[in-house]
Amino acid sequence: MFRRRFITNCALLTAALLSSGGSVEGQAPADEAQVKAMFVYNFLKFVEWPADHALAAKDSFVVLIIGEGATADATERFLDSKTVGDRPVVVRRTRWDQPVAGARAAFVAENDARKLHRVLDASAAAGVLTIGEGENFATRGGVIGLLVEDRRVRFDVDTSAAQSAGLRVSSKLLALTHAVRSSTDRSGSQR
């Protein structure tokens, strides 16, 4: 059921983009960014946070946007007025050197290795789901990395990074990954 719904949502969004004159291969960056933003939202529904990070009944579902770029902007717009479960999503823009505590997830649009290292370490310690772009995001310690392959958006999940953050990624989501990767530390050796 989940797989069919997730794939249907992705197919509907792609069909809408194509019918509006875009193409997946030659799409404008904003179109690709919109597809990625939709993926980010769906990821939020299929991760469990540690019991000691439980939200109080009145708490919002806080998502940080760290860095700049088309996908960061599209994610901020897409999450506006959304909910995860019965909680409203609140999006906050922040810098790489700001605290991540209190957030459930972070879309990280930061490529500088030093800054990314700091964000990923702080996020793991705070139990924050990290989502970013590029084939190396998941292998550098991010939990979910979005990338485009064969004109399609796909994602990798680093189960070691998820476990380090105390997160449990749904087996339904893991079944949809192109590749589940083992995490490496910032020097390139296996953790």
Total individual domains: 1
Q: Which structural class fits the helix and strand makeup?
A: alpha/beta
**Percentage of residues assigned to helices:** 25-40%
Strands, count: 10
- The low-pLDDT segments are 7-28, 185-191
Task: Quote the CATH topology.
Answer: Rossmann fold
How much beta, percentage-wise? 15-25%
**Amino- and carboxy-terminal Cα gap:** 35 Å
Largest sheet: 8 strands, mixed
Number of helices: 6
Sheet with most strands: strand arrangement: 3-4-2-5-6-7-8-10
- Would you identify the CATH H-level superfamily? Response regulator
Shape: globular
Describe this entry's structure for a reader.
It is built from 6 helices and 10 strands, in the order ααββαβββαβββαβαβ. With 191 residues, it is of the alpha/beta class. It has a single domain (2-181), classed as Rossmann fold (3-Layer(aba) Sandwich). The strands form 2 sheets. An 8-stranded mixed beta sheet has the order 3-4-2-5-6-7-8-10, sandwiched between helices. A two-stranded antiparallel sheet has the order 1-9. Helix 2 (29-44) crosses helix 3. 34% of the residues are buried.
Quick tags:
36% helix; 8-stranded mixed sheet; alpha/beta; single chain; globular; 191 residues; Rossmann fold
SSE order and pairing:
Elements: H1 2-19, H2 29-44, E1 47-48, E2 61-67, H3 70-79, E3 83-84, E4 87-94, E5 105-109, H4 113-126, E6 129-133, E7 144-149, E8 152-158, H5 159-164, E9 168-169, H6 171-174, E10 179-181
Parallel strand pairs: 2-4, 2-5, 5-6, 6-7, 8-10
Antiparallel strand pairs: 1-9, 3-4, 7-8
Helix pairs in contact: 1-2, 2-3
